[in-house]
Amino acid sequence: MSSTIINKTHISVAQNASGRHLNVPIYEISSGMDGPHVYIQSSIHGSEVQGNVVIYHLIQALKNILVRGKITLVPNCNPVGTNIKAGEYTLGRFDPVNGTNWNRGYYYDEQSVIEFANNVSETDDISDIRNAFKAHTLNKIIEKKQQPWGLGLAQQLNLTLQSISSQADIVLDLHNGPVSSRHIYIPEYLAHQANQFSMPHTILIPNQFAGALDEASFCPWWTLSDHLGARFGRDYDFNIEAYTLEMGSQEIIDFKDGEKDACSILAYLQHKDAIATNTYQPQKMKRLCVYLKDYKTLFTDFGGMVEYSAQPGQLIKKGETLAKVLNIDDLDNQQGVKVIKAPCDLIPILHFPSASVLSGTQLYKCFTQYFEIN
Amino acid sequence: MSSTIINKTHISVAQNASGRHLNVPIYEISSGMDGPHVYIQSSIHGSEVQGNVVIYHLIQALKNILVRGKITLVPNCNPVGTNIKAGEYTLGRFDPVNGTNWNRGYYYDEQSVIEFANNVSETDDISDIRNAFKAHTLNKIIEKKQQPWGLGLAQQLNLTLQSISSQADIVLDLHNGPVSSRHIYIPEYLAHQANQFSMPHTILIPNQFAGALDEASFCPWWTLSDHLGARFGRDYDFNIEAYTLEMGSQEIIDFKDGEKDACSILAYLQHKDAIATNTYQPQKMKRLCVYLKDYKTLFTDFGGMVEYSAQPGQLIKKGETLAKVLNIDDLDNQQGVKVIKAPCDLIPILHFPSASVLSGTQLYKCFTQYFEIN
Amino acid sequence: MSSTIINKTHISVAQNASGRHLNVPIYEISSGMDGPHVYIQSSIHGSEVQGNVVIYHLIQALKNILVRGKITLVPNCNPVGTNIKAGEYTLGRFDPVNGTNWNRGYYYDEQSVIEFANNVSETDDISDIRNAFKAHTLNKIIEKKQQPWGLGLAQQLNLTLQSISSQADIVLDLHNGPVSSRHIYIPEYLAHQANQFSMPHTILIPNQFAGALDEASFCPWWTLSDHLGARFGRDYDFNIEAYTLEMGSQEIIDFKDGEKDACSILAYLQHKDAIATNTYQPQKMKRLCVYLKDYKTLFTDFGGMVEYSAQPGQLIKKGETLAKVLNIDDLDNQQGVKVIKAPCDLIPILHFPSASVLSGTQLYKCFTQYFEIN
Amino acid sequence: MSSTIINKTHISVAQNASGRHLNVPIYEISSGMDGPHVYIQSSIHGSEVQGNVVIYHLIQALKNILVRGKITLVPNCNPVGTNIKAGEYTLGRFDPVNGTNWNRGYYYDEQSVIEFANNVSETDDISDIRNAFKAHTLNKIIEKKQQPWGLGLAQQLNLTLQSISSQADIVLDLHNGPVSSRHIYIPEYLAHQANQFSMPHTILIPNQFAGALDEASFCPWWTLSDHLGARFGRDYDFNIEAYTLEMGSQEIIDFKDGEKDACSILAYLQHKDAIATNTYQPQKMKRLCVYLKDYKTLFTDFGGMVEYSAQPGQLIKKGETLAKVLNIDDLDNQQGVKVIKAPCDLIPILHFPSASVLSGTQLYKCFTQYFEIN
User: Fold this and answer.
1) Could you give the CA distance from residue C240 to residue C242 in angstroms, rounded to a whole number?
2) What CATH number has the domain spanning C5-285?
3) Is the complex ipTM more than 0.85?
4) Is D351 exposed, middle or buried (0-12, 13-18, 19+ CB in 10 A)?
5) Which residues of D are less than 8 Å from A79 in CB distance?
6) What is the tens place of the pLDDT at every residue in C137-147?
7) What pTM did the predictor assign?
8) Do B303 and D99 make contact, defined as CB atoms within 8 angstroms?
9) Chains that touch D (3 or more CB pairs under 8 A)
């Protein structure tokens, strides 16, 4: 009878100015059975730490669960971002040297997918295509990393992680918003999976690559499916899935919430036959959904000190108050408090985490034109 | 019949690299009556913004109140600190160039107080002494600002503010903690005033100067009282008071809470006959108190990702859990979560605002050996 | 007889957390004559300050020169970037809140140019087309700024500047490199103008928009020329020019060098008949040139402490030493110093300004495949 | 016959948010002979890196030299400070979380020295007193590190280093200035040693502790000497020396200069009989000297963009230009450039490394009232 084995290794994703390797732990869990390969990472943005607790709880649970296939867990996958302090907080969203977002340097080359697709023959078995395409992608990533002039830090780090994630069938990238409700990014072709997660808010994203891991994980397969489908006039479902999960607010570790988040992921993994259980179920809840184009960012036109009057997840009608901005030069007159109102019916999903804002600050990200999904 | 007049001016406290003056608004409120001069400032630490809302509500209330004496309100008194962003948050606690705490450069020179005291004669009227000492202090501050080699930015800024505050009889400095309960610093000789504020937690501080505005405001008078008292064998009460009020957590603007905070201050001002009202009363509440030496900082010996399990204001018994620290390299074994326990019975008053900490981070500040005051 | 008039105004490009407008000075110089409109700005990257001295010297010189047309000078065009300190240096390259490069949010929409081109008729006068296209572009910029959901700070600031620069015939954007030789970016169609500047190194850039001001200034006209040319089978030369000049190293003000730089610009302006002089001449010098694709960035694969052995402007042969990296854990053995060698013949143009580097740091930018231009 | 052995170990001085130990390499060099114990560290301030090259060259030289006693070399002694980037530069001077200077948390307790001194008897051998006092100091340091409420990061790091350095007879702390000439801090009682170093500028410091390593190293012994001398009426020379060497400018690695700096130190070590050589000699040079009280900091009263017209090491007469400040709002009038003049005859030793300054910035540190020493 099989039992679950946890294998822990480390890989270096960067080297610091002291010449030290910055290592990332890789926990590989398997029980010697067949099944999908799952890859889960957390904290590519350094201040988004809750995913690490989720992975902790996943490991505790998986110790007592039979795993089909393999589950690779990569907590704290960006030790550079985790350890840059600027004041009390963590400057974890971008490289402090040059401003590069840590989640924008993954590899995707549409042209290379098309070339691969053109070499597939109609009689090729889908699982052979899948394996060949994984190998093809890995080669491209390795090639890119070996450029003679080198690569920037964020891209080096991203590609090192992607050399593992690109071999998986299921990729989950665990993030947090600034002050945020729980929400999930799902590629449009997987909209039906929204109810497998216990997430109240879903953003459906198109087949467009902007550098993030989820896109880098599903765009190649989506493009491959489309091309093969068009060439041979039938459906190609490679059964590859990738999601970005936003586990609430950044800069917070909460063990109880982390346990719930882990259960939500286990329910999805059970649904995907990645684990041999039948005890996990997605929560019964109302699930609201938008297309990415309707997920709007509200910027402020002026600077000041902001009360975020609307809470993440709360329905706000057009014209209702989203925020109040204090102007310290006008405390004795009518201009002392400006009110920012909702330009349409909306649900704020997250807001800026600081009360002090310059003009042009992203105050809220909001669902507009949302609909229920189930 | 007298009515209340609000006079607004600006003073420059610094100049930036574009050569622009950084101005601070000064709201002076009076009704042409006699009474104490009150000075209230907020946001000397840039991310501690709630005091600005409190001043906003004070101004709204004072419009309809007769003010005895004069109330000077200085919101956002440090525009340098307010406007230094490092990531999404405000790097407002110290000068980003050199690390100097913005609240440590006020003037106090014990020797100069003693010299002044030695020139007082036994027959001098207490109000004449008070006026003469205010003038003496102002001269010293101006002299210090005019040093031929110049002064550092924080000190320049502090002295400019102090040239106003030093002329007041009552000084309130409005701050916030990181993630914090409401609490107040009171000099020991004013312990009996704790129940005039609606603050559940009081720290009693001795006659020792460490650079902050409250100390710079009361230490000279305390020292002067002591010296004159010792010389002439009787009590000298100059009726000068100074407090630091911590209005909850930094990086938050909350209008409703700000209104409550303003009422708390108005009750104190009414008690001091600074305003001609009888409608404000301090809240009935349990007030806990410590001596500064018993207000302990708990540092962590190791780094990791922290859940702050104990909330500000909550009684924690010796040995109970204060925090849990996740170690991402040990998620598969017993070292995955370390528990930090209370070294004695205590009440955490504030905690660090980020989940990611290096060793040597100030996790909590705690009341120990506290007692009830009423 | 005409004389030169300097008109100074200010525009607000942003508002800070204190609610204060951040103003940029605009110096407009004209002598009531006809001629091209020149726009020169400096310091869009906050630590690149030498251009401000150049504008200072330009103003001193222009006081005694007749200006044909108009010269608009905008020093310190980004007061946000200028005033963000992080330690002793200026964090001026990107928005500290979100990492957005301050020089990537200008407006260019190829589709809109093509639509405009399609409405031009063959008989339209070239100067009418130019005026109409300037008006068209300004409308688009204003429209973009008025989006109901707002815009990010960098983009707001860029568009405010561009609403002025887009009306000019000649745009010069004054920058600095980190530790850098003087060099200039020239659009390929203006390669013949390289010898009008006293710049030893020229980078020729294609008609591709990546967000910078020079691109935003010439791409629309280049595209318009191409489309009209293709439609009507003849050349359209709108006589619009835009350049980015890199005036040596950042964080340095040097008045003498600034005077030389100003003379270099005046020689170009004289060549363009923007000023009524004949006294300025470009320096006689060897001018080396590359296509943008051959302007290579060398990243380091490892972290450590770097000696930049090769100086900006110095010819380095393949295999010669560019840099030495000290590894503090191996000072007692052969790994103590690693040597980074030139991968081909090259000329380093600039290098990173700090000795301490992580892996993936951009050590040098280098000319390869360069050629002489004259 | 003895030969030189290099022993390399690592100690952890901190732990980061990933839970990783931040290690510092310790190179111990000895040849099995008797002699003084020398301790040399570098880079307590993260951007002051040249000392690491000096230690590299010291190790290369010491491989071929017989060492009397022991030489402990601790390069990059503050891996936290080394690895905090804020923009391209290193934010290495203070803890980015709270502003604490990394060189202010060493241990010295005058009272504890006096208590120790009171327990010494007149007949005690000086070498026994020295050993006992080293043991006493070490115990105090260990005790301090084990406080139940913990310690701040900078202090933890300082005390860990001091637990080694406090056992040495000679302590050299290698620093850099911002843009700086080479200079050295020497305790007044060791003024005669200034000509053993190849340093053109010397600052003589009194027996006052402000937290730095050199003070923490010599103050206890100076105080002990004084007390024993006063008690027993004779001289106690413990032959303990400590210096801070400023090896030029920060953010620069220069191997050739580092070799010269290493030779300067070897000459001093030879003079102290710490190495068995006779080949190293201090350079013949003019050595200028000031008392600490005459080492003046010049702050600017206004903000702007600064040309540092006076170079480190250059004699400037009273009234001559030190700096010019460009004001971008006045480029068209007389206020465009303000000149900052020397308030007296002086030699600037270092200046601020950025052209952009707020009011209250430390522009220069200067020798005044200097004299030649030889």
Assistant:
1) 7
2) 3.40.630.10
3) yes
4) buried
5) 16, 18, 20
6) 999 999 999 99
7) 0.97
8) no
9) A, B, C
